């Protein structure tokens, strides 16, 4: 299976073009005003239009209500909805039913106990995204460039596709894939010059490093060590 690569938090057409040129699969547009990567819906619409047909578009939200999701879906027409807040499994199921689009649910991980929530979410989401659990005083629940202990995912079989995120960058993505054998990776801070300012060269380096690592040790049907 081919590794799926998502570049998240794009704010410019230059960044969208860089993700497409690098050979990424998905781009994430953050609709969450406290984030330095927030895009308003008018701008998000133009970025999504630029990506459509070349990259899957993911709309990232944090505890968004139905009214906001209505507006986001109307503006961005995303291929995926990424729920990165405290949404319950019931809320994930309701969003999926209302919008009829695949839903990716982010779960913050800091310890093995955090994985106990996986079955309930795997039953309703189309993909689980594992991110580092944010510190209590964080102003946002993700996009912090913070990694978690990848060994926690050893032997994990969530029963559906999952995406690894949290503190990935061009230098560490190969090691992250070696340890987790994740079928998909997501990066934001690790391909930036500053929060919200994507670096085309780092995007290219990240995709190159991730593809090389996946070719050396494919995710699916890879015998366990
Ligand atoms: O990027 C943000 O600002 C953001 C805001 C609110 C929720 C999630 C956010 N980003 C997501 O967080 C993970 C990890 O990002 P990083 O690579 O560690 O910076 C990733 O899924 C981003 O899409």
TrEMBL record:
Q: Which PANTHER family match?
A: N-(5'-PHOSPHORIBOSYL)ANTHRANILATE ISOMERASE
Protein name in UniProt: N-(5'-phosphoribosyl)anthranilate isomerase
The record ties this protein, via InterPro entries, to:
Aldolase_TIM, PRAI_dom, RibuloseP-bd_barrel, TrpF_fam
Keywords, alphabetical = Amino-acid biosynthesis, Aromatic amino acid biosynthesis, Isomerase, Tryptophan biosynthesis
The pathway this protein participates in, as annotated, is:
Amino-acid biosynthesis; L-tryptophan biosynthesis; L-tryptophan from chorismate: step 3/5
Q: Which domain of life, per UniProt? A: Bacteria
Native species: Rhodoplanes elegans
Query: From its record, what is one biological process in GO terms?
Result: L-tryptophan biosynthetic process
This enzyme catalyses: N-(5-phospho-beta-D-ribosyl)anthranilate = 1-(2-carboxyphenylamino)-1-deoxy-D-ribulose 5-phosphate
EC numbers for this chain: 5.3.1.24
Write down the SUPFAM superfamilies for this protein, in alphabetical order. Ribulose-phoshate binding barrel (SSF51366)
Q: Which residues form the N-(5'phosphoribosyl) anthranilate isomerase (PRAI) domain?
A: 5-208
Name the family: Belongs to the TrpF family.
As one GO molecular function, the record gives: phosphoribosylanthranilate isomerase activity
